[in-house]
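In this supplementary section we document a worked example of the pipeline. Step one takes a protein sequence of length 451 as its only input; no multiple sequence alignment statistics are reported here. Step two produces a three-dimensional model, which step three serialises into structure tokens for compact storage. The input and output of this example are shown verbatim.
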Amino acid sequence: MGACLGVCSLLSCVSCLCGSAPCLLCGCCPSAKNSTISRLLFTLFLFLGTLVSIIMIIPGVEKELHKLPGFCEGSGSVLGVQTHVDCGSFLGHKAVYRMGFAMAAFFFLFAAIMVCVRSSKDPRAAVQNGFWFFKFLVLVGITVGAFYIPDGAFTSVWFYFGVVGSFLFILIQLVLLIDFAHSWSQLWLRNAGESNAKGWYAALCIMTFIFYATSIAAIVLLYIYYTKPEGCTEGKVLISINLILCLIVSAVSILPKIQDAQPHSGLLQASLITLYTIYVTWSALANVPTQTCNPTLLVRNSTGSATATQPLTTWWDAPSIVGLIIFILCTLFISVRSSDHPQVNKLMLTEESAAGAGSEAAAVESGLHRAYDNEQDGVSYNYTFFHLCLLLAALYIMMTLTNWYRPDENLQVLTSPWTAVWVKICSSWAGLLLYLWTLVAPLVLPDRDFS
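The serialised model returned by step three reads:
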């Protein structure tokens, strides 16, 4: 009897995936905003594609698959049946590019469909907030089709799409960091003001010190490992320039006029931005194609995965692992963020409204665990821009998992190009300028309301 009830409960939850809104008719989810649940589920699709890409790029996967009889071509037969599946065709560098293409195409499709949706009364909003099973089928279909794309120039051309998309997503990451640091500082300062406890101020000082200390230690390590007394001029110049720029934005953030215009700006935000800039600098130096100036340079002589005759190499370097963690945190933050920073809201095309306050109260009073519609009078985020952010995130994770390495014309050798170095460095400069603008905007444009 219990098993039957469990199956019925499971089926009721599965039925929610085919409806016009998630969890409206069942208790699979707690009471939450419809807009937040939709963003989280789309992000789950992105994470699922990322997981598949990680499995595809892990060295030695094809070798392990060949141990399974009848699974790959040349791995033996099962009951006399010989398979003709080339496992190398859906593993390795090229497979990650095709998975990245599929995810980018999926989110581009929804970005185009959701143009100019103003409220949940628009019929397209039902597509945005429901029919998740069919969306999953669409993603699977696009993925299968992507693996039928001929090699040719696809990988070389898609590399440059990934470079441009990653550049833009790095800027989005920095905007999100500005938003996070602003909310963090404002929360602790508010708590300090309400409780008259100096512990909150001490906590702000400690976290700021930790961020700056970590940044200084990282800069020293970059000078030690990525420069040499003779040569490596590019590395020395790039580290020094970013160090100077970080000092400038830190000094600007505590200027009296800046503090008067934006009382919540301070060194906590500047220290976090500095730490992120140093990380991007480290990531850029890890792509310098000179072995003497880049001890972490990875050498790989095939776009496929490692086979039994090829030595296994450590394919992910430390910057890529850190980049993967930052990617996960930022995409989750995009999904759940509700910012009170007006400049960040303008940059991210997001404006949390109180349109669903009545629906929220009704959901709480009823005691039902369900998603309520908080967008009847207006959307709480720009649907198209959200999907474009996930599209850029898909391109960024594609480049991160392949270490920004570019295949040659014969798709046999992967090299680390200077293109990756300069794209990352330029994105760090653009990000610092963007942060500087959020500081000085109220002074440059005094007639505009930045409160």
